[in-house]
């Protein structure tokens, strides 16, 4: 059996890969940051280098 420890951030426009142990969990989805988990209020992005998600 394989244990998954990393996956893509659940935000559709985000390119980040998150460690499940560090991720923000919301509604059974895993996010790289609070901005992604909250649906990017005020157009805030995740701020991670090279990603550029903002919605």
TrEMBL record:
Keywords linked to the UniProt accession: Metal-binding, Metal-thiolate cluster
A Pfam short name: Metallothio_Pro
Record's signal peptide: none
Keyword Metal-binding found: yes
The keyword Metal-binding belongs to this UniProt entry's keyword annotation: yes
Molecular-function GO terms, alphabetical: metal ion binding
Species annotation: Cyanobacterium stanieri (strain ATCC 29140 / PCC 7202)
SUPFAM superfamilies linked: Metallothionein
Protein name: Metallothionein family 14
